[in-house]
DNA sequence: CCAGGTCCATACCTCCAGGGTATGACAGAC
DNA sequence: GTCTGTCATACCCTGGAGGTATGGACCTGG
């Protein structure tokens, strides 16, 4: 009568791996158990979710439909648990260009049983995901509204101007803010369709203009047809680790410690 | 490790009844079982959800918080099940002023085990809730976008003009559309804050103007300081029962039959 | 002050769902 | 053919969710 979130999670695992064996391994259960659970799930829903063959497994249309529904539901359930202080997974948010892998790897190695996930954020939701519990901790770019957040500054990095390779500024060692006057600037306050970094860069490549991005972001999304030059006289972008200040879990503290440790080594 | 939706549903039941005994009765389980389940749930979450005393039960702050999170999650889970064709509950949507009780009562009497719920809709979401599975079937006011819907017309009713009791049109037997020219009309295309019927009527009562509503809506929301007069020369409002045409469940068919039967008797 | 009623909690039982292991059936690769 | 990778079947064991019977705490009326 009630939906079983465990079975739903198992289903998602199989749908993502398209293999009962590998999914079972990822879930840390035996393959026959997973087989039986999925069969039981299909029986409950009275819908076939997978086409099995001896070589591989594929989703049925109903399965594809369910997969789309399943992920947000599981995310919402996970966020609920996080809000009441139960850690079923530890989730790290990050803005485009920021590297979270080293810290995540250290955390997983210290807690082998813990599921650690990452969630890429945008300017719009980098703080929201912290408050609503979708992430435990987030790498954010300042400034952010400080209300209810604990913020631990990590480092600063210069901002660069991203322009087409054919642009008049393309060869320069560096530019001044004044050099950009008269250029159409693609900003994150633009309407939808220009919001993601990819979209901004696409617009710059196609229609000219200039995008001002933190260095790491420009490097991460570098394209052959675009180049970036440092802007000298603009405030550097500050990167920080942030979490909801009302949640003082040991895992958050430990992750913050790991991050500072890594930042110190660089 | 996974959230247990059954326990969450039990929790909501206790939170709503503020009594283990009555909640258990509503859930059709024995009271000690419910007690134990809630205790286990609290242990899993490591949070106390209720303050128990021999006279009554009350929510803790954590419980209040969880209750707010629990309802949308359960609704989303229920919608997911409905989309894959599993009926855990049968939910009927209805626009303000429409009476669903008789049909619902017949349905529950014929299916004693079935949970039947109702959801009040607005102009904005009366169709959306059908498509996304929040309701199985909805009483809607035409016109609606017909794509993907099966629509069964029920009846027509005149529209009335709702005006302050002191208005120049207040005493009339009926008015013509032309009589309303020059009046500020409060419409459902207005910005937020004027969307719900209550808000429209509040606006009419405070600032004058006129709201044009179907008769049953005006009657349902009647207030001392407002009166309504029929408009003669305006197209009547048609009320219909609608459901997603790709879902041909026996329950929907039966409900439609019940509704036609009731409509025939009136 | 005790009797009864109204709560929720505890104790104890049963049963089934979910976990495990061992093994089978089937298909493609060599 | 045999080998290998895939999913399914058979069997067992444990824990959790359901039940009933009963206890303990607290109010309330006589």
TrEMBL record, chains A, B:
Transmembrane segments: none annotated. One of its GO terms (cellular component) is protein-DNA complex. The keyword Transport does not apply. Gene3D superfamilies: 3.40.190.290, Winged helix-like DNA-binding domain superfamily/Winged helix DNA-binding domain (1.10.10.10). SUPFAM superfamilies: Periplasmic binding protein-like II, Winged helix' DNA-binding domain. GO terms for molecular function: DNA binding; DNA-binding transcription factor activity. The keyword DNA-binding applies. Residues 3-60 form the HTH lysR-type domain. PANTHER family: HCA OPERON TRANSCRIPTIONAL ACTIVATOR HCAR (PTHR30346:SF0), TRANSCRIPTIONAL DUAL REGULATOR HCAR-RELATED (PTHR30346). This is LysR family transcriptional regulator.
